[in-house]
Design brief:
Blueprint (H helix, E strand, L loop, with lengths): L40 H4 L1 H31 L5 E4 L3 E4 H27 L17 H17 L6 H21 L18 E7 L16 E6 L9 H8 L1 E5 L8 H6 L4 E5 L11 E3 L4 E3 L6 E3 L5 E4 L8 E2 L1 E3 L5 E4 L15
Antiparallel strand pairs: 1-2, 3-4, 3-13, 4-5, 5-6, 6-11, 7-8, 8-9, 9-10, 12-13
Length: about 350
């Protein structure tokens, strides 16, 4: 657009350069002053300003639409669906859609703000003298006056279309973050308090994958077991074994000090959770003479002859015991689930 298309009253008046000092031998670091301000086309032509306003509004609207697309993609696209995207290859359709829509939403807000600042907000350079750190009443009044002047020059009060679409974008886009919380999965409910052990579940040796008889557990030995029916190829195997892993130790009945432990054992065979109550490490070290088991991660030590109570280390409470017995076929079986949640103590407060 040439200056001939702009109303004459909108053309800027001739401006003189800001007064400055001239560098010489006595003053080599003279302040040259500010160059004269050159108005933009939007400053002198309202039609150009309207075009910029519509561009900014379009970017904010695009941001809102992309945010809505993010939410719709999260709700509509299955987690296991994949698509081919060149040159990435086969990717998750959900992840691709979420990344694309959220990226567009954030980019459009940023681009709209930058275009607004570069074309419609005031670009006049103002030099301000340094002032003491402590703000005087005069300085505070000046700051507020500058703020009001800046708000006025931003044209946010006059450019209603920009203001409305900007507030819409800033309202809709953050909603997408709320839906990201759903990606954490379903609420755990009470499933952390229960394991795969049930009344009548056989104890299966982790090494042989065979049901166990009392004769399979020798005095002084440490044996690991899992619930009947839990196989390594199962989709939920890792999640379930992390709660149901069991260790068996055979003690002389006279060495068992805790009355409940003796009642829940069978012929001196005691069954305790293998998961340490500190941070959930698997316990694997057994001291035959003292009947102590040791967690290798942080050295929490439990006394299996006295209710698996903690005698050393950072663990918060004793290991949960599983009540066991023998079925009609002579195999060891569980007589229920653990009485308390296994693993770290914070599950008890969950």
């Amino acid at each position: 657009m040439s200056s001939q298309d702009i109303p004459e009253e909108n053309l800027p008046a001739e401006q003189e350069s800001a007064a400055g000092e001239v560098a010489d031998e006595r003053n080599p670091f003279a302040d040259p002053g500010l160059p004269p301000h050159e108005p933009r086309i939007q400053d002198i032509d309202e039609r150009a300003a309207k075009r910029s306003e519509r561009t900014v509004a379009l970017l904010f609207t695009l941001s809102m639409l992309a945010a809505v697309g993010f939410i719709a993609s999260y709700l509509a696209i299955p987690v296991d669906k994949s698509i081919y995207v060149f040159p990435l290859g086969h990717v998750s359709a959900l992840n691709f859609a979420l990344g694309l829509t959220l990226g567009v939403a954030l980019f459009a807000i940023g681009a709209g703000a930058v275009h607004w600042a570069r074309t419609l907000m005031s670009d006049v350079e103002v030099a301000d003298e340094r002032h003491p750190i402590e703000a005087s009443p005069e300085v505070k009044a000046k700051v507020m006056a500058d703020f009001r002047q800046g708000a006025k020059e931003s044209a946010i009060g006059r450019r209603k279309l920009i203001r409305t679409t900007m507030f819409g974008a800033l309202t809709v886009v953050p909603l997408s973050s709320l839906f990201l919380l759903g990606g954490l999965g379903p609420k755990p409910g009470t499933k952390l308090r229960h394991t795969a052990w049930r009344n009548g579940k056989l104890l299966v040796n982790m090494n042989t994958n065979q049901p166990m008889r009392p004769s399979d557990v020798a005095v002084g030995s440490l044996t690991f077991a899992k619930p009947e029916g839990l196989e390594e190829h199962d989709e939920e195997f890792q999640n379930e074994i992390a709660k149901a892993a069991l260790m068996l130790v055979r003690l002389e009945p006279v060495d068992i000090k805790d009355k409940k432990e003796l009642e829940w054992s069978h012929e001196g065979i005691v069954a305790y959770s293998k998961i340490c109550t500190h941070v959930g490490c698997p316990i694997s070290l057994y001291e035959q003479q003292t009947h102590h088991v040791l967690c290798p991660c942080h050295q929490s030590t439990f006394d299996l002859s006295d209710g698996a109570r903690v005698i050393f280390g950072p663990a918060g409470h004793a290991l949960p015991q599983l009540r066991i017995g023998v079925n009609a076929d002579g195999y060891l079986e569980a007589l229920g689930d653990f009485e308390e949640p296994v693993g770290p103590a914070f599950w008890e407060r969950g």
